[in-house]
Amino acid sequence: MLTFDAAKCEARDSYKLMSGLIVPRPVALVSTVDEQGQVNLAPFSFFTGVGSVPPTVLFCPTLRRATEGPAGHRKDTLHNVEQTREFVVNVVSEELADAANATAAEVAPEVDEFKLAGLTALASEVVKPPRVAESPAQMECKLLQVIYTGHVPGAGVIVLGEVLRFHVREDLVENFRVDPVGLAALGRMAGNTWVRTRELLELERPK
């Protein structure tokens, strides 16, 4: 077994280890708007639920090099969330694989990733960012807290949001239980590898 001292690892090497070991990761396709109403859409695989009272989710942008974008170290999504305190998490299904991947491109803030990826913007009920109409489920969220784990490129930022509205395609939910096969959610592995959720394993929890 190989042992790596995290304090001596380069940032890119730590990322390779984490993205390879913390798998599979669900993908949050996050939509936001800035104060001028410009829409942004980007995927994040460091994403999970936190609790149900209130229903809370988090996703984690990383700080980038200042040369990678006009917002300095902050990605457009983080910049927008801090400005408007709202975002939408759109579930990525198999049908959205190519479109979600297209939104990962580094483009100028004025570029509409909905159009770039051929997706349809659908008005939300209680927040300004639109939902992705093609997504099988969406969560409208208000910002609770932003936590910076560092302030250098590669540092993580924890964005905590309270879910205000759940939207789930009608054929996928019964008595609040979501059909995992019908949802056909995608996950991320390391590098360019994604994973399907078709092969399921049932294990009864010990009593």
Condensed summary:
The protein is α+β, with helices and mostly antiparallel strands and 207 residues long. The chain is built from five helices and 14 strands.
What would you say this structure looks like, in words?
The structure is a single chain. This protein is of the alpha+beta class and 207 residues long. The protein has a single domain (25-189), classed as Electron Transport, Fmn-binding Protein, Chain A (Pnp Oxidase, Chain A, Roll), CATH 2.30.110. It has 5 helices and 14 strands. It has helices at residues 11-21, 76-84, 97-102, 113-117, 180-183, and strands spanning 25-26, 28-33, 39-44, 47-52, 55-59, 86-91, 121-122, 131-132, 137-148, 157-168, 173-174, 177-178, 186-188, 194-196. Strands 3-2-6-9-10-5-4 form a 7-stranded antiparallel sheet, with helices on one face. Strand 13 and strand 14 form a beta hairpin. 30% of the residues are buried. The model is unreliable at 67-72 (pLDDT under 50).
Question: Any descriptors?
Answer:
single chain; 207 residues; alpha+beta; Pnp Oxidase, Chain A; 7-stranded antiparallel sheet; 3-stranded antiparallel sheet; 5 helices; 17% helix; globular
